[in-house]
Every structure is written in C-alpha cells, then in structure tokens.
Design a protein that fits this description.
Elements (H helix, E strand, L loop, with lengths): L9 E4 H4 L17 H11 L3 E5 H4 L6 H18 L2 E6 L18 H20 L4 E5 L4 E2 L7 H22 L4 E5 L8 E2 L4 H8 L8 E3 L3 H5 L5 H10 L6 E3 L18 H14 L5 E3 L9 H27 L1 H10 L4 H7 L4 H9 L4 H6 L4 H12 L4
Parallel strand pairs: 1-2, 1-10, 2-3, 3-4, 4-6, 6-8, 9-10
Antiparallel strand pairs: 5-7
Length: about 375
C-alpha cells in the first residue's frame, strides 16, 4: 500500500536528491551525483519523474557541442529508466549578475539577459518533454526601497512574463507556467510573497489562462501562514498547476525538510485536500536530505517523502470512512434549507424575506460545534489508535 509507483506522480528535482549538503556556513558534505545516475536511482525507487533548473543539467559555461552531448545522454537515461522530465525552470538567482534582480532588475542589460537565459532554458525543457515551467523569483525584490520603485518592479515582471508567454505560444511549446511565491529570503523583501499576491498579479497578465501557481509547503509555513489554506485558494481559483512538497519549522530559514518531518497534521490535511479535490498534477518533493547524511541517507530521504505521502493518503481515506468522524462532521455542518435558499441567488423578495426573518440568537450563541472531539479523533487517527 505504501510502495510508490509511477501513477502516484511523485517527482524530485535534480537539485533535491542531488543536494551536496552545503549551507551558508559550511562546505558540501556529500559528493556530487550525476544527473543520469539520479534518474536511475529515482526510477528504482518508483518515482514518476524528475525536474531541473537549466544549469542543474548543462553548466552555464558549456559550449554548444558539450550541451548537446549532455542533453543526449540525459534524454537516453530518461528513456532507459522510464522516467519523465515533468518540470523545468531557470536558475535566475545563483549568478552574481542577478544580485539585484533578474526580470525586475533596474539594469536593462540584466533584464534582457534574464529573458535570453530563460528562452534557452525553455528550449531545453521542451526538448526533454517538460509539461510545466516554473518561475521562482528569489532575487526579484529589494533590501532597501530607496532604489527600486515597487511599481516599476511589478511592471517589469509583468512585461517579462508577457514576453515569455508569447514566446511559449510562438514556439508551440504549450508549457503551463507556474509562479512560485515565497515570503522570506534570500532578498530582504521578495515581490509577490504569498499565494494571494500571485493570484492577483496573474489576473493582470496578457495571458492569465496560461499562468498558474507552484506553491511550496515550506515557503508559507516559514512565515507562520497556513499552507493548506493557501493551496485551497489556488485550487478554488483553478490555478494549482504544480506543487512543491517538503516541511519546515515555523520562523526558521528555508529548511526544505523531508515531507512530513515536522508538521504532520498540516501534511495530513494537505494530502487530504489534494486527494479529495481531484488534483491530477505531479507531487514534487522540493526538499533534500539532512546535511548530516551520506548518499545512502539521500535515498532514505527520497523513499521517506513518498512513503509518508502514501501513508497520509491512506489516513485521509480512513478519515473519510470513519463513522464517528463523519457523524461529527454532519452535525457540525448545520443545514437549513429555507435559509440556504434565501441566502443564494439574490432577488429583491429573498432579500426582504431574509431581512424580516427572526433568528433564535440565544440558541445560536449556546451551540458548541464539537470541534474539540473532532480534532482529537483526527489526532488519534494520525497516531494509529483508530
């Protein structure tokens, strides 16, 4: 029941299982793994696909012939091991040229280079068969507001995405663009930091139908926000194109912990939301093994992410089938057909009837909805005693 299979659509980035264990205060603790070896190992573990930044696969200084050789070998590995390249993205944050932004930089030369780099990366993703293209604006923001007018920054970001949407159409790539919000680091303040901000921005684009979201568990969690609510908002808007699963201690730096490692209840309700809503996209684990681990620990990390998701998926099915939990939910959701009819679909007569209705406010004030018992049963289910 908990063995991952390709139909579960679990994916990992080359940068996730390939993370060498380096952090801002210490050098790598693991040797670098080749992209073709990563494909082989993920296939053995039951993953569906792999994702990449352009320079995860092709070094930025590679010549044309070396680029073609690397891509050919990687494409052959995908074919040999039955994995798909599901998502591609551009590294617009590592090179010092992007220290003050990429698409939003005040320097027109940097903005043009960001477009140049992204178009080449889109070509790479299309060549390898990617369906999704993610944009994480890690350098799109500011440390001080004296230099950058935020309205200018947003206008430049809009201009860049409109340009790339047209390139996507012109080349016939049919990528689904997914914007990835993040409230904290590496800039002092990142533009469009949360799901709601991204949704508002997407509506201002020339092709909003082409652009959705790639929310990440750790990103809104690190700011103390409710990630499950954010994902629900994206689903409600029809904009959950792709999702990054990991875990995070609230208020800490971006830890990218193994999925379910810290916030089990949140992870449970996230899995339940994805499964109950019929989300059909990939489940991407944008996380990495602890810096303490050797290569064996990396593959234990990858197995753990997938196994935890499947365990929580089974727990969600139990929640939906548990008679006592469902009885409590039925009691919690009080129905009143007459009032519901008056409250939906405005007419003048309905408004007048609703205004004239006499409510039993003392009874409403006394009623307890039973959430303590419902929450306790959820905890007991997760602890394995139900």
């Amino acid at each position: 029941m908990y063995t991952p299979k390709p139909e579960h659509k679990f994916t990992f980035g080359l940068w996730t299982v390939g993370n060498p264990g380096r952090d801002p205060f210490g050098e790598p603790t693991r040797t670098k793994l080749s992209p073709t070896y990563i494909v082989q190992k993920l296939a053995e573990l039951g993953a569906y696909g792999v994702n990449l930044h352009d320079n995860d696969l092709v070094p930025s200084d590679a010549g044309a012939s070396e680029r073609d050789r690397i891509v050919k070998e990687f494409k052959q590995a995908l074919s040999d091991y039955g994995l798909k390249l599901v998502m591609a993205t551009t590294n617009l944050f590592g090179d010092p040229v992007f220290k003050d932004g990429a698409f939003t930089s005040a320097d027109a030369r940097v903005r043009a280079y960001a477009l140049h780099k992204t178009m080449h990366a889109m070509d790479l993703g299309a060549e390898l068969g990617a369906e999704f293209y993610v944009f994480w604006g890690g350098r799109e923001g500011a440390e001080v507001d004296a230099g950058m007018n935020t309205l200018d920054g947003l206008a430049r970001l809009r201009e860049a995405l409109n340009f790339l949407c047209e390139y996507n159409r012109d080349q016939g790539y049919n990528f689904k663009f997914a914007l990835e919000p993040k409230p904290n680091e590496p800039r002092g303040d990142i533009y469009l930091p949360v799901v709601g901000a991204m949704l508002g921005f997407i509506a201002t684009l020339d092709h909003p139908e082409m652009v959705g979201l790639n929310p990440e568990f750790a990103h809104e969690t690190m700011a103390g926000l409710n990630f499950v609510h954010a994902v629900a908002q994206a689903i409600d808007a029809g904009k959950l194109f792709h999702i990054d699963l990991n875990d995070q201690k609230i208020g800490r730096f971006d830890q990218d912990l193994r999925f379910g490692a810290e916030n089990l209840k949140s992870a449970f309700f996230l899995v339940k939301l994805l499964e109950d809503s019929g989300y059909a996209g990939p489940r991407h684990f944008d996380a990495h093994a602890l810096r303490t681990e050797d290569e064996a620990g990396v593959w234990e990390f990858a197995k753990g992410c997938m196994r935890t998701y499947l365990i929580l998926k089974e727990k969600a099915a139990r929640f939906n089938a548990d008679p006592e939990i469902q009885a409590l939910l039925a009691a919690y959701k009080v129905r009143d057909i007459a009032l519901e009819t008056l409250s939906k679909g405005y007419t003048r007569d309905k408004a007048a009837a609703l205004k004239a209705h006499l409510f039993d406010l003392p009874a409403l004030r006394r009623r307890g909805p039973g959430l303590e018992r419902l929450d306790q049963l959820t905890v007991e289910l997760l602890l394995g005693v139900r």
